[in-house]
Amino acid sequence: MAITLRTGLGRKLTIAEMDENFTFLSGSYVVNSVTSSMTVATASIADELSGLATASIADSATTASQADNATSASIADLAIIGSGSFSGSFEGDGSGLTGLPSYAVANSADNRVITSVDTNNGNAEANLTFDGSTLTVAGSISETSALRYKENIQPLNNSLSKVLKLNPVEYDRKQDGKHDIGLIAEEVNKIYPDLVSKQGTQVHGISYSKLTATLIGAIKDLNNRIKELEVQISTSNK
To answer: Are strands 104-106 and 28-31 parallel, antiparallel or unpaired?
Structure first.
């Protein structure tokens, strides 16, 4: 925005004149008052400052800068001069905020998992808890497995040979030192990649519930071998 003094003076504003007539707010000068000795060279002050007000505060507002620079007077001046947006961070417990929707949680207790009842209400489930490392379910877990959800169904072959490659281990957890038993996900990934979950490209966990299908297949393979041996023994004894 170009501002000059009245015709005939033809000089730039001094620092003192700038400080007298402008307020520095978040990276931009905003006019406090327009004296009778100043005129706008190319456009009205209201039009020029409207553009300034829209851009500067949204770009550079932070909690600190607003507290340091913004006053009730300057905000009031800005509201009169033009419109703009305000962005930044909020610090506090929110107790003074109004007009926000409420959300109530019933049956609240430590470690209970909260499920949604509707947009304004939740319920802390007594049978579902999480303490930061262990998820506890008091009841049964059902996984979707109906035929109507599946296609390209094929028998699981060579289950016994694959199960025999799995390496059960016991170990101590690095996080809490708790002793546990299980499989190594990286090893399972080489045999049954569909049973392994990943985070990006890194192997993360094992779906132990799906491992049940492979164990059933291995038992059936083993049973077939036993029947074959029984036939061979029966034949050799004749």
So the answer is: unpaired
Strand duo 121-130 + 104-106: pairing? parallel
Residue 2 carries which side chain, given as an amino acid letter?
A
CA 110/CA 113 separation, integer angstroms = 9
Identify the pLDDT of residue 149. Answer: 94
**Structure confidence by residue, pLDDT tens digits, 58-82:** 454 444 444 455 554 554 454 444 4
Vertex 20: Cα angle to 14 and 24 (nearest 5) = 95
Q: Is 68 helix (H, G, I), strand (E, B) or coil?
A: helix
Residue with the bigger pLDDT between 237 and 99: it is 237
Q: Are the C-beta atoms of 34 and 6 separated by less than 8 Å?
A: no
- Across the chain, mean pLDDT equals 76
Q: How far apart are CA 4 and CA 62, in angstroms?
A: 33
* Radius of gyration of the CA atoms of the chain, in A: 37
Q: Is 16 in contact with 48 (CB distance < 8 Å)? A: no
Q: Which two tokens stand for residue 181?
A: 């038993």
SS3 category, 57 = helix
| 118: its two tokens | 């509707």
- What was the pLDDT predicted at 236? 86
Please state, in angstroms and as integers, the Cα–Cα distance from residue 178 to each residue in 93, 128, 136, 182, 183, following that order: 37, 22, 16, 13, 15
The tokens describing 99, both together, are 């007009």
Q: Residues 6 or more apart from 132 whose CB is under 8 A from it? A: none
Question: For residue 180, how far is the Cα from the chain centroid?
Answer: 31
- Phi, psi for 124 (deg, rounded to 5): -85, 110
